[in-house]
Amino acid sequence: MVMLADPNVKYRPFSPIHLPDRTWPNRVICKPPIWMSTDLRDGNQALVEPMNGIRKLRMFELLVQIGFKQIEVAFPAASQTDFDFVRTLIEEDRIPEDVTIEVLTPAREDLIRRTLESLRGVKRATVHLYNATAPEFRRVVFGLNRQGTIDLAVRGVHLIQELTAQQPETEWFLEYSPEAFTGTELDFAKAICDAVTDTWQPTPEHQLILNLPATVELATPNVYADQIEWMGRYLNHRECIVLSVHPHNDRGTGIAAAELALMAGAERVEGCLFGHGERTGNVDLVTLALNLYSQGIHPGLDLSDLDEIRRCVEECTQLPVGPRHPYAGDLVFTAFSGSHQDAIKKGFAAQEPQGLWQVPYLPLDPADVGRSYDAVIRVNSQSGKGGVAFLLERAEGLKLPRRLQIEFSQRVQQVTDATGRELSAAQIAALFHQIYLERQDPFTYLGHQIRTQLEMPQALGHKDPQQVEVQVMVRQVGELRQFLGRGNGPIDALVNGINAGIPDSIQVIDYQEHAIGTGADSRAAAYIQLRWPDGSLRYGVGIDANIVAASFKAIFSGLNQAYGPEQTADPKTRSLVLA
Fold first, then answer.
1. CA-closest candidate to residue 129, choices 186, 99, 173
2. Does domain 443-569 have CATH number 3.40.1190.20?
3. What is the pTM of this model?
4. Does domain 338-377 have CATH number 1.10.287.1400?
5. Fold of 382-437
6. How does pLDDT run across 300-341, given as a tens digit for each residue?
7. What is the DSSP letter of 248?
8. Fold held by 32-317
9. How far apart, in whole angstroms, are the C-alpha atoms of residue 262 and residue 301?
10. Pairing relationship of beta strands 100-106 and 70-74 according to DSSP bridges
11. pLDDT per position as a tens digit, 89-104
12. What is the C-alpha end-to-end distance of the chain, expressed in Å?
């Protein structure tokens, strides 16, 4: 197959909406929408490896911490994992008083009953009902005409009314989505939404959520805005309705579609933190929120520690956030062009501390989202950092994490600045070994022993077989010493043991590992970034045939960066009180 010479024989442009008196182009967004996170549902169902209960709970807690008041937590009828997660939230009283959980169900009787069963005992919940309404779904998938499609939705609403009436202790809300709204005829979308509204009978005090999803993004964002404004004008009982949108990103304009939809009258936005979702993803709520913030509108979400939010999402979803991702990427606040760096430096020099933000090339102050100025104002080149990483990988098989690339490239630059010479690949590798692998002062790793929770006598009756105890032997400035600790894994246990024996408290921020070589001679390389209470960060690197030993070596490598002899020349560095 090749691209068609005339794609018009296969594809058609989307027909414009007849709305000559449209008003949205002249409107300005002046307040944040109602936010609804679907990371745990729409985002989760798109993952190669869907989140287990532990990761779902961690994501839920993150969403609550950020400030989401509406969270779609599951598709309970889809899997036992989702059903059990809803029950865990309810039975363990994990849902804050001001948070409403939401669950999704198709308009099928057995699935609706299973969904309502999962919610038994909840204080407040939204049941999100949907059925597909676009012509190709009606014709090809379901074999229903317009009236049959409306009847399916109305029967679903009636059943939800019947089942929720059996749980009067719960405050119930209904959300209805005509799936594939953007491909549905507007008159039919209005007809089915009006039928749902008439059946549910919402009031201005207890509104119905009508969600109009771009299930597949089919047209330019202005067309979506026209569809939203048209529906907002002509829906019955508009005062009883919260108009919600759920944009996807198939054309790469999901954020623009959401912003124009808000201008067109939408009051609520559904999406995922970094746009995770099927195909090209859902709308990116972090970018959307920070777009508002950069225009002087507080989004009502706390994104102050954006790096930590990103790390948590990456761990829960097993998906990376790209280095050029808006606001959150590692490289978005870094300029590599000399002219850009010069303009940024001058902008910082001219910036009034309490004045309007007017620094060239930076639409947002990095400090507002917890990012350092170091990457912004340092004078080095991307090619230098990338070249160092490339040479190390080719010569040593080491695949440095991006943040370690930055850290080490600064050390390389110090050497090149001092000598005025270019370093060869062998010299770069030797410098890396000297800094991260050969330094043995003050700590030299000697060996370790591990016992699992089940092997510990005092663990009788404990239910967590993942708990381990480690005993790590080191030489500390010539004296033999051991660190003893327990945790949810070997690294966690060692860090706990170290924190009990040194004056500072360290925290593992980033951990990555990979194999060097193949077969019997392969070794593991571990990279661990440590953070101290003052916010300073250090990377450690360990290489060993045993991955646990490599990880332990990496931790002591990081400690040696912080406490080694060269640090004593700097009065600002910490000192290690030897036990």
1. 173
2. no
3. 0.74
4. yes
5. Arc Repressor Mutant (1.10.1220)
6. 999 999 999 999 999 999 999 999 999 999 888 876 554 676
7. B
8. TIM Barrel (3.20.20)
9. 17
10. parallel
11. 999 999 999 999 999 9
12. 70
